[in-house]
Amino acid sequence: xEHVDWIARGLNFMGSLFLVAVGLGxxxxxxxxxxxxxxxxxxxxxNYPVIGRFRYIFERQGEFFRQYFFSxxxxxxxxxxxxxxxxxxxxxxxxxxxxxxxTRLLETEGSIMFMNTAFPTLESDLAPSQPLTIGxxxxxxxxxxxxxxxxxxxxGALSRPAVxxxxxxxxxxxCWMNTGExxxxxxxxxxxxxxxxxxxxAKYGVRNLEGHLDDEKLAGVAAHHEVKMFEIKLSxxxxxxxxxxxxxxxxxxxxxxxxxxxxxEDSISPNGHIEFKNVGDILDMINHVREVxxxxxxxxxxxxDVQWLTNFCEExxxxxxxxxxxFFTVDSADGGTGAAPxxxxxxxxxxxxxxxxxxxDTLDEYNLRPRIRVIASGKLIVPSKVAxxxxxxxxxxxxxxxxxxxxxxxxxLHCNKDTCPTGITTHNPKLQAGLNPKDKAERVANxxxxxxxxxxLIAHSCGVSSxxxxxxxxxxxxxxxxxxxxxxxxxxxxxR
Length: 496
Description:
Elements: H1 2-38, H2 43-47, H3 53-70, H4 81-92, E1 112-114, E2 132-134, E3 142-144, E4 148-150, H5 160-173, E5 176-178, H6 186-189, E6 194-199, H7 215-222, E7 227-233, E8 245-246, H8 253-259, E9 267-268, H9 279-293, E10 297-302, H10 307-319, E11 327-331, H11 342-347, H12 352-365, E12 373-377, H13 383-392, E13 396-399, H14 401-407, H15 429-432, H16 437-461, E14 475-478, E15 484-486, H17 487-490
Parallel strand pairs: 4-13, 5-6, 6-7, 7-10, 10-11, 11-12, 12-13
Antiparallel strand pairs: 1-14, 2-3, 8-9, 14-15
Helix pairs in contact: 4-14, 4-16, 5-16, 13-16, 14-16
């Protein structure tokens, strides 16, 4: 009987809880109904109280449902599931092979295909990637045998553990890490990797009170052995024509100190360098930075109006080839990891498939290669894209988002909101706690190592001994009629 009494009491208690829950639910519905009918900001909620709220819930959650349940492997943007899955497997160092054929449509216009040969490169004929030197005439030239590197992502846009993981991962992989425009932090130096210091339009970390270069600070950055090169950013893929944007909620005391700005205020860089009025001014800054630091100095830009590029090369020829930048990083209009205005991210600048060949062909026209090394950046996260860029004429590639995926990024598209669920682009300590720098450093190293390895697989299938021997004759691109044409013919007569 006592056992039965306990059951009865339990049922009564659960019944009471149910009634309370129902009552609270009814009160909540009544409250939402009154609020919705009396507000005039949202027409849907006013005309369809309570029920209209589901529209906003579904709109917010829709991107996640599409990503995990509805989109096919090759459909998502900016990176599809097939691309992300390859990076995840490469970073975790697990099997990267597939079964039962490719899910990639080979007839789609713009698809690229590498031309295998009847005589692929045998293992006995393999050749490691040869070291290339950037800035041979500098006091401290930089030489590396790696092809793939980490593109610019600033501390501020990225969290402390993310920068630590990238720094240590880059050291293990033997590649360089670009600081982005947010200045040099201890976390960039922690792993002892090679570092490229980026000078953005705001010149964070090397600026005076008027926003101009401070030579003393510049020399101080260059004094670090890890800092190998300097990159002057004219524009970037996410927002060509506008400077970096770091929301105030991400400007902590530490970031404010490194950048030389106020805590909690939006960090918005000028849309251009205040010193630049013509191509001569760009060359003046390149040579000034190179003279102060003694290290290779180059520029980064998205190709848009190409006349300035022609003028730039002509000015170099007028001054002499020693005045040229040591490298040119060309970014794609579909690049970007952080905050950017949608009109710029969607509609301004040329994608890499046009910008890279325009740059390479223009430099070749003026015989400025290999004096100016070409670094390609923008969605080059998988081996096929890297091999394509090398075939077009790039000397190196630099990837930001590929390494973010290696860190565990799930493409939640919250980079600018300080709510990144993987701790990569947030300064919320609770969210950062899920990102173990030591573990993720291994994944960054694995990703870059496997990226190199699979690029070599493509090169060997085309009959060359190393990836940099790939050229435009090794690649075909699908045209509108579904048939393909060789890349050198595809780009013949490209409007420059």
